[in-house]
């Protein structure tokens, strides 16, 4: 997607002199500054996933793939030492964030590609596979946009939560992708962007992406969604996903469940948009999805730019106040009208999901 007229992905990898540098758009700086960060070792890459320098299920998956390829290049050439280094790197990367299925999915994709190869060939194969993963996300984002396009008629007012745009899926994104395509095709589309406390991915990232694409939108406080739904100003809700269980229950950014219940109450269709890499066919239902609990400081403080342009973190609660901070919630499948995947829109039902994996 274009930033100031130049094409970017959320992350990519440069290999030079037998070493890899992972390059990422530094997301916590947005929308105030656009900067690229270099991650020079797989440990830097793991930390960038953990501290959310990059975030969003698809980009987490792509960066995990890059991180493991980077580790393969760092590993010693002697076979036993090579595999023990790669195994340790796998564990380090795997432990960074627990909810997004795409993380482990892509670590396993790289491992399957290099299994049984001698180290020199495994290094080349890991780099090729990591790049193929990144290309795959770029392709499926566009396919999700095409399948979802039929939900965005001329004049549609869509609501989305968090950031599931191209920053979260390398290119195009998932939930907002149909709106981007509709807008490029000249349809009149309007997007309600939930601010998405506590980290404000909607206000910081989705709004910034929409401004780059010129899509008309408005940021709303999280607790204003019901107000606009009840007034008949929302035609469809589309959100992304971090993990979809085999029965269609879906984990996405905390607050998604409330949107789904509100949408049902107001007779509004509620869709999940996600690539098939987000589906965990081994996870029976939503109660089995691991939910990340992040630092309480994310709730107790907000970060923004002061009038002189500096980034400031300020406390918005009494000193010493307790907090809780689940990063995701689970929307039961019964609230989900359909799942927009790269292979079409399917019902959020066990049989339809199983069919994708036959
Ligand atoms: O904690 P984050 O910012 O990584 O959470 C991101 C989301 O919940 C997105 O909606 C989801 O990953 C979909 S991204 C294609």
Give an account of the 3D structure.
With about 350 residues, this protein is α/β, with parallel strands linked by helices. The chain has two domains: about 140 residues, Four Helix Bundle (Hemerythrin (Met), subunit A) (Up-down Bundle), CATH 1.20.120.420; about 210 residues, Translation initiation factor eif-2b, domain 2 (Rossmann fold), CATH 3.40.50.10470. The chain has a seven-stranded mixed sheet. It has a four-stranded mixed sheet with strand order 13-10-11-16, with helices on one face. A hairpin with a 2-residue loop joins strand 3 and strand 4. Helix 2 packs antiparallel against helix 3. The longest helix has 30 residues. The radius of gyration is 20 Å and the shape is globular. The model has no long low-confidence stretch (mean pLDDT about 95). The site of 5-S-methyl-1-O-phosphono-5-thio-D-ribulose has 16 residues, from helix 2 and strand 11.
In a few lines, what is going on in this structure?
The protein is an alpha/beta fold. It has 2 domains: 2-142, Up-down Bundle (Four Helix Bundle (Hemerythrin (Met), subunit A)), CATH 1.20.120.420; 149-356, Rossmann fold (3-Layer(aba) Sandwich), CATH 3.40.50.10470. The chain contains 11 helices and 18 strands.
Secondary structure class reads alpha/beta
Rounded radius of gyration (Å)? 20 Å
Corresponding CATH superfamily of the largest domain? Translation initiation factor eif-2b, domain 2
- The tally of beta strands, per DSSP, is 18
What is the H/E string? EEEEEHHHHHEHEHEHEEEHEEHEEEEEH
Share of β-strand residues:
15-25%
Strand order of the largest sheet: 8-7-6-9-12-17-18
What value does the average pLDDT take?
97
Q: What is the name of the CATH topology of the largest domain?
A: Rossmann fold
